[in-house]
Amino acid sequence: MQKNIYNEQTGISYTLQGNYYLPDLTLPPEEEKHIGVWGQRHLRYLKQHRRILYTNLLTSGRLNSYLADINEQAENMFLKLVEQMAEHEGISEKLKSEHSMEWIGRMNALRESAAEIVNAKVIFA
């Protein structure tokens, strides 16, 4: 038996593995983009709860760019929310210089609230 065969009609080559010929399939090439913490969270969500979408993105070669876009959207939304919420709550640089521990506590609470909103609207949507 031949180790490798090529099917002219389909354009697929096959390799002998044990007693079976398995197709030599590879994923399409994909441009590597940075995926931050938001993209990683969304990837974990896709793998656990949206398996079909995850598989479709992976096999079409669009997963990395999709996750990079989600990461960018979530990061922009998070930064904008933190800025707007800090302005609304009156958290300023003056408070930071005069009462740094209070500023840290309020900013941490504000960042947690913004993260919850981003998770609900972008990551787990």
SSE inventory with pairings:
Blueprint: E1 4-7, E2 12-17, E3 20-23, H1 37-49, H2 51-60, H3 63-89, H4 93-98, H5 100-123
Antiparallel strand pairs: 1-2, 2-3
What does this 3D model show about the protein?
By secondary structure, the chain is mainly alpha-helical. It is built from five helices and three strands, in the order E-E-E-H-H-H-H-H. The chain has helices at residues 37-49, 51-60, 63-89, 93-98, 100-123; strands at 4-7, 12-17, 20-23. It has a three-stranded antiparallel sheet with strand order 1-2-3, with no helix packed on it. Helix 1 packs across helix 2 (51-60) and helix 1 (37-49) packs across helix 3. It is rod-shaped. The model has no long low-confidence stretch (mean pLDDT 93). It holds the Pfam family TnpV.
Name some characteristics of this structure.
single chain, 125 residues, rod-shaped, 2 domains, 5 helices, mainly alpha, 11% strand, 3-stranded antiparallel beta sheet
